[in-house]
Design a protein that fits this description.
By secondary structure, the protein is mostly beta strands. 6% of the residues lie in helices and 51% in strands.
């Protein structure tokens, strides 16, 4: 029998009424904002002036093809550089677009049959203010840097990113224009579900590519040289082709970011404002075959039944394989990939969380081409494949269609029975549409014995009028577990405006209770959510103390999917002001009024003890209204030796474990220190305290200091020590009248955890895929309860990993 997705069409009318209610509130906010904002007519004039300037800019570049190979040493003294095409006339993009760059930048570009070469002279007119250290790969966010974005398909959707600091230290990844949201809504603050750098839009720094770079400081700034082999790229199957090109320069002492192509903020597509490398031809890339075998050894320590400390040994052989079938189509395979090449997931606040936390992907097999699996609702989340025994992946672009598939067999440890190997199959197809739009389809399946979970859906994103996009997504799921089947549906719609002074993001999201995304990250079902946010941005005069100011704010409402007529379960109104000051200082804040409704199912089986000693069922209270909260944060500029940020938050909240009102006080501190060019340390402190309203007693507290110290001995040799202390306390549960709560017939008890985690790593990584890691990790309990007198080991372990990348090109 065919199972039809439960689309619940009868609920569309209440959902539409709900969304209309939100839009009415939004129109009020928008009208008030428009009265306070600069006139839109002035914005339109500014946009027209920028468009005219762009039309006259020399953005079509024909670099020469030169039959030569040179040494990449950061010295541009070879004759080929005199023949190269020259790119100059950079303009500011952040914080204020359209202004001439305050420091000139000159880029020279040419290509050989095997690689494309860039030589950059970044001049600095403000003295000895260049920020640069001998950092580890992908860790140059606090450095002056040059970013080269190559849109090798010339479709304004995805670009390869190659970044270097003044010493030639590398960072790389991909940047997507299609997913992560537009700059008009909440995503303007740097949202996103992967390892996203807020200053760079939807930039994922996890993938690693092979390229050569070198740099040096000179009297008037710095010079860097970059060689990008064609075999490190995916590109079109054409004899003669054009590539999109963006070159960005980040100047840390001022906080400015400049671009060669005069990009403007009033545009929903950043990559759509790229320049073009014209007439590229005669590539000798060959077919790529890369095999990276690895050996991993572990010694895991724990206390045995006799009370003695004992170690268990484990050794494993794995391998990653990569075959470039065509210039834009790659086949990957893996056997036993592991997480040993990365640091542990950062500790997160957990005591008052209601939903699962997201952790980014780190394994090289999954990272290669991961951007091709993106969907608006994160329907593919590769960390659901916990410990694959074997896997294969095909990803690339054929014509105007992106194709990405994975088939993987997970370890049986992660099956419900412990005897079956879960099998995952995912497929994502995206087709380019005119005007930077895309239409996509997604299929996922998880099979485990006789149980299965399958999903199919489609989505579309269309751009219009330069500043707007519309995105729609519809998905159905079918699940069978323990002999019973269920089906569910997901619908999402978004309309976004990315204007220079005014932007918005309006969205509605409806997910039925039985919707399951077994290979995705959808951590909450059974709701209809509508939100409406507006953004206003003002710009100070050139040289003024305040460079940009404004913020975004709006309303959100969430309804039960089955009972929309009962009114919203939760929601609120939020305002997030911010300002950028001269020199790179940043101020941010928030003000919110929220409300929540407690889910009765979460409190089933709880009881309370009354004053007379009688035991009665726990009564779930009604909606928690008018919870007001706010925050304020300050971030310093990137000084030569340190950067710091402090955020203080305070307000009313719901204590979900007790279904009672409370208050919250949270402090977040981040301090990055760079005392030498090779040594850096990062201190992060989170301090959260929740108190009850009934008697101002403490419900819970979490104090999590985390210190990471890194030393870069050479560009390939790296040492790191991470220490994290977590002090968590929670009192025994009481209801809002102060009466004790019983769970399972027993009184709940107070809990206290004081743990120390220590991780030490030695890394030798001369190139991506070739590495030696030696590490030690230890988990300890602080028996002295924050007096630091005695620590008892609860677990520890040694690990080593050796991997070597064999690459055969033909």
């Amino acid at each position: 029998m065919t199972v039809i997705p439960d689309l619940k069409l009868s609920r569309c009318a209440p959902a539409a009424r709900a969304f209309a209610h939100v839009l009415v509130l939004t129109l009020i906010v928008t009208l008030a904002s428009a009265l306070a904002a600069p006139a839109l007519a002035r914005e339109q004039v500014q946009e027209r002036q920028r468009t005219q300037a762009r039309q006259h800019a020399a953005l079509d570049v024909s670099p020469p093809r030169i039959e030569a190979e040179i040494v990449v040493d950061g010295v541009l003294d070879e004759p080929e550089w005199q023949q190269a095409a020259v790119l100059s006339d950079f303009s500011q993009y952040q914080p204020v677009d359209g202004r001439p760059a305050s420091d000139p930048t000159e880029v020279r570009v040419w290509y050989s049959p095997q690689a494309i070469h860039f030589g950059i002279h970044a001049r600095e007119l403000h003295g000895d203010v260049v920020r640069a250290t001998q950092a580890n790969r992908d860790n140059i966010n606090s450095e002056d840097q040059i970013q080269i974005l190559l849109d090798t398909n010339n479709d304004s959707r995805i670009a390869f990113v190659f970044a270097v600091n003044p010493f030639g230290v590398q960072a790389d990844g991909t940047r997507s224009d299609n997913f992560g949201g537009g700059a008009g809504g909440r995503s303007a603050t740097g949202g996103g579900s992967r390892n996203i750098n807020p200053m760079d839009g939807n930039l994922d720094l996890n993938p690693d590519f092979r390229f050569d770079s070198a740099g040096r400081l000179v009297d008037d700034g710095y010079v860097v040289e970059v060689r990008i082999p064609f075999r490190s790229l995916r590109f079109q199957d054409a004899e003669v082709q054009d590539w999109g090109l963006h070159i960005l320069r980040r100047v840390q002492h001022s906080g400015f970011q400049d671009t060669w192509a005069p990009a403007v903020r009033a545009n929903a597509s950043f990559l759509g404002q790229s320049g073009t490398l014209k007439g590229l031809t005669g590539f000798q890339r060959g077919r790529i075959l890369e095999i990276a075998p690895s050996v991993t050894g572990r010694l895991d320590g724990a206390e045995d039944s006799g009370g003695d400390w004992a170690y268990s040994e484990e050794a494993e052989i794995g391998a990653d394989l990569k075959w470039g079938i065509r210039q834009n189509l790659t086949l990957n395979g893996t056997i036993n990939p592991d997480f040993s090449q990365v640091e542990a997931d950062v500790g997160q606040v957990v005591l008052n969380e209601r939903f699962a936390l997201f952790f980014p992907e780190k394994r090289p097999f999954f990272l290669d081409g991961l951007e091709l699996f993106d969907t608006p609702s994160q329907l593919i989340y590769t960390r659901r494949i916990v410990a694959p025994v074997v896997g294969t992946k095909l990803a690339g672009k054929v014509g105007v269609t992106n194709i990405a598939t994975i088939i993987a067999v997970d370890d049986r440890t992660y099956s419900a029975s412990g005897d079956d190997n879960p099998v995952f199959a995912v497929a994502r197809v995206r087709r380019d549409l005119p005007g930077n739009g895309v239409a996509g389809a997604v299929l996922t399946a998880r099979e485990e014995g006789s149980d299965w979970s399958r999903l199919a859906g489609g989505d579309i994103r269309l751009y219009h009028s330069q500043k707007y996009f519309v995105e729609l997504e519809g998905v159905g799921s079918w699940t069978s577990a323990g002999g019973s089947t269920a089906s569910g549906s997901l619908f999402k719609g978004t309309w976004d405006r990315t204007g220079r002074n005014w932007g918005f993001n309006y969205s509605v999201n409806a997910i039925s209770p039985d919707f399951r995304a077994a290979a995705g990250f959808v951590n909450r079902t059974g709701f209809i959510n509508a939100s409406s946010f507006n953004r206003l941005t003002g710009y100070g005069a050139e040289g003024a103390l305040i460079e940009t100011f404004g913020g975004f704010g709006g309303v959100s409402r969430l309804w039960d999917y089955e009972n929309t007529g009962d009114g919203p379960l939760e929601g609120g109104e939020q305002l997030f002001p911010s300002a950028t000051l001269r020199g790179g200082w940043r101020l941010s804040g928030s003000l919110a009024r929220n409300f929540f409704t407690y889910d009765p199912a979460a409190y089933a089986g709880l009881e309370v003890i009354s004053g007379a000693g009688a035991i009665t069922p726990f009564t779930v209270p009604g909606r928690e209204d008018n919870l007001v909260s706010g925050s304020f944060g300050v971030t310093t500029p990137t000084f030569r030796s340190f950067t710091a940020s402090v955020t203080y938050s305070r307000g009313e909240t719901a204590l979900f474990a007790e279904a009672a009102p409370g208050s919250s006080r949270r402090v977040d501190v981040v301090l990055d220190v760079r005392p030498t060019s090779s040594l850096r340390a990062s201190l992060q402190i989170t301090d959260l305290v929740l108190r009850r309203d009934v008697d101002d007693s403490q419900f819970s507290s979490e104090l999590i200091p985390r210190l990471k110290v890194e030393y870069q001995l050479t560009p390939s040799v790296f040492f790191r020590v991470i220490g994290q202390y977590a002090a968590r306390e929670r009192s025994a549960l009481r209801d809002r009248e102060g009466r004790p709560i019983l769970s399972g017939g027993a009184l709940t008890t107070a809990s206290e955890q004081n743990t120390l985690n220590l991780d030490v790593l030695f890394s030798y990584r001369p190139s991506p895929g070739t590495l030696v890691y030696l590490g030690y990790g230890s988990a300890m309990d602080d028996v002295g309860q924050k007096r630091f007198e005695q620590f008892d080991r609860t677990a520890d372990g040694f690990f080593t990993k050796i991997s070597y990348s064999f690459r055969a090109d033909r």
